[in-house]
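Reference record
================
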Amino acid sequence: MADRLDELLARMHQLQDELLEELQRQQKRFSYRVLRRRVYFTRRGIAEQRQHLLSLGRYLARANPLHVLTAPLVWSCAVPAVLLDATASLYQWVCFPIYGIPRVRRLDYIVFDHQFLKYLNAVEKLNCLYCSYFNGLIAYVQEIGARTEQFWCPIKHAKRVKTLHSRYKLFFDYGDGERYRSELPRCGGISATWRNRAGTAYARLVSQRHAGDGVMGMLKDYPARQAEQREFVRGETTGGALAPG
């Protein structure tokens, strides 16, 4: 069963990679390229885009009155979104180093590039900016939550889940208490010994197997912990979470 699940997940990731490759091939079709996070169009591409520009006056004249009335409600979500962004970012910057979890790179999820499109007017660009931020933020926070769940409670659900986050494939099977108890401490899950261990934040990064090694033992094994962090990001860490030690 586990092998079948791993096979399906591998196929899913392969399809995602193929989709990204196909999207990259669209660059040639629409005459643009991306360089240092900026999108550049050819002169011909810019000219073609401007043919489809809808002026701000005509855009507003065609707007559905109900869409205009509901716009304030849409934009009211911006305030809690910014608070969520700040809270999640602060949480991972403070807690992830203590847990030994690599921080999520925000720029990989929140992307702004619609402003380079010449067929969008000012209002459309503003709307795109908001949607890009909000949806990118959700993906960013989901990855923070996924890494947190992998560390504290890496157990799959018995009920069907609509979508799976990036760490779900590494979780323990639902009901597999034996493997959960035997492998979670080794993989960095919380335990009474680790929870009550005194010392600095650096000492809290080590797992139970280093409890008696002392400071020199911690320093000696630091390269191995760095390698484990890289495996965590690539999704190669098996079992529960990244081993903090």
